[in-house]
Amino acid sequence: MIRTVEAVPAVPPAPPRPRAHAWVGARRLPWAGLLFVPGGIIILSLVFACLILLRYSLNLWDPVRTMVPAWSAANYLAFFRQPVLGRVFLNTLRISVIVTGVCLVIGYPVAYGISRSPRRNLLVFLLIAPMLMDVLIRTYGWIVLLSQRGLVNVLMTGLGLWGAPRRLIYTDLSVILELIHELIPFMVLPIANVLERIDPALREAAMNLRAGPARTFLFITLPLSIPGLVAGTLLTFALAMSAFSAPLILGGGNVMTMTMLIQQQMLTTLNWPLGAAEAVVLVLVVVAILLVAAYLVMRVLLLAFRGR
Q1: Which SS3 state, helix, strand or coil, does residue 220 take?
Q2: Residue 11 within any structural domain of the chain
Q3: What total number of domains does the chain contain?
Q4: Rg of the chain, C-alpha, whole Å
Q5: Are 79 and 85 in contact (CB under 8 A)?
Q6: Which of 1, 133, 164, 192 has CA atoms 20 to 30 A from the CA of 10?
Q7: How far apart are CA 98 and CA 291, in angstroms?
Q8: Which domain holds residue 237?
Q9: What is the pLDDT of residues 58-101, one digit of tens each?
């Protein structure tokens, strides 16, 4: 007897189940976008403030009516015609260059040590710990150190290096020291971040090819750390150009910078149009210097890689 086998109908395949991570990402995407809202508000506020200064800089100033609405470039012409303003800008530029150079010389070895240390987190905390204080507290701390009876004068006279206490505050030196203390973390952290990402196999390969520590540093470590050098240098220079607390407190009116000049124009003489023009010129010059420096560095790097 032959048995007949009935065909079993095919079961349709089940629809693919959505992936959990895709659903989670789709659900979290709007919330992740909200994280950029505070930063966007801050940026828009700064842009709006710059536009207000730009509009004020085109007004005229009258001793009786103070700011007179107008559309004039007289304040910008006055900025370039008055030699005092040029000297103040050059003094600000000189202090900023000195601070940036000293921070670079001191900060690179510190960043190199932090990147090679097993206690990196502790060293980074100690580096940024002074930044947790208010800038005014740090500035007044330098007054205590550099005063006539401060620690520096007592130590130097006690060792016989100075015959009498010297005047250290209200000088360029006091302003430069405070700015170095304030801005050196902004130099160290970008360099340390780049140095930490360098593959140790590159150094080991150079050592296997009989390259000494000096040649390994010059041809491997230093070129690869240039992006951190550029970021730290530009950031430190921009902050030094716009510093206000150090020239105000430690300068004591003897160290005139662009920020001090802007403060005097707006709050003392009430010449808001000229002060706004000085602020706009300062921002434009700093941005131009940063762009030119970044372009030159990238140009040098491009030529160096092409040469290889």
Answers
A1: helix
A2: no
A3: 1
A4: 29
A5: yes
A6: 1
A7: 20
A8: 83-307
A9: 999 888 878 888 898 888 988 888 888 889 999 999 999 999 99
